[in-house]
Amino acid sequence: MPELPEVEVVRRGVARHVVGRRIERVTLTGERVARRHTAGPADLAMRLAGATVLHVDRRGKYLWLVVQPPGGEAEALVVHLGMSGQLLVGANDAPTARHTHAVVVFDDGGSSLRFVDQRTFGGWSLHPLLHDPHRTAGPAAATASPHRYGIPSSVSHIAPDPMEPVFDQAAVVHAIRRRRTVIKRALLDQGLVSGIGNIYADEALWRARVHGRRECSALTGPALRRLLSHTEAVMAEALEVGGTSFDSLYVNVNGASGYFDRSLNVYGQSGKPCARCQSTILREEFMNRSSHFCPGCQPRPRGTRRRR
Q: Is pLDDT of 23 > 90?
């Protein structure tokens, strides 16, 4: 699943092309693309026809379009990118690519928006917008949420990400230290801090010199603050270069790939020398995925064994 930088790249590209435009019609192919929309694809297409796109928003890895139907209240069209979902902008008369599951045509005759999903784990659904429950979080109680239209009901349980003004690092540090689990699992918990996935968790842990299997309670407050600062920094750097693309599935709205994969220090680098201490980067299984670390910079906690 794309992580925060990749989703933000998509959000910015989509926003440039669709905000302020009125939807003429939406064509959905098959039932699966609308399986999260309880009333099905026909209802989803009908409710989107005639709506105006007011905003394109994101929290962590979750992306949505704020749409205003004629005479109705604004709603959130939540776009689940899944493992391979792409939002592409193209001419209305462009050939329909294979694995295209949704096409949005606007009434101004300009470019259309297409959802391509090879592995079909993604999908679209409409949800009401709610007041952001984290609007007054953070050290400054008056801090305004960037989500001026609210948060989709389906995303209300997701915590703010490190790039949001409402992100409260002190509160997250306190919550992590109370968790009876290992630090990498805590970083991947979207209800605790959102936007961080496997790639950027590994990279931030390497920068902080912390092994992912360290117990949360064993880490000091300053160590956790450094780690969270590293997560924000590494995702900001990835965002500047369009995110991380390991294959052709992770692209922006114009079909171009990001190239932060050239700057990765540990993720996907097993067998290569660490850029900091020259130890050989190792890979092990973690939560049904891969975890990468440097045994020299990130010593394994006592009592743990390597999991192949």
A: yes
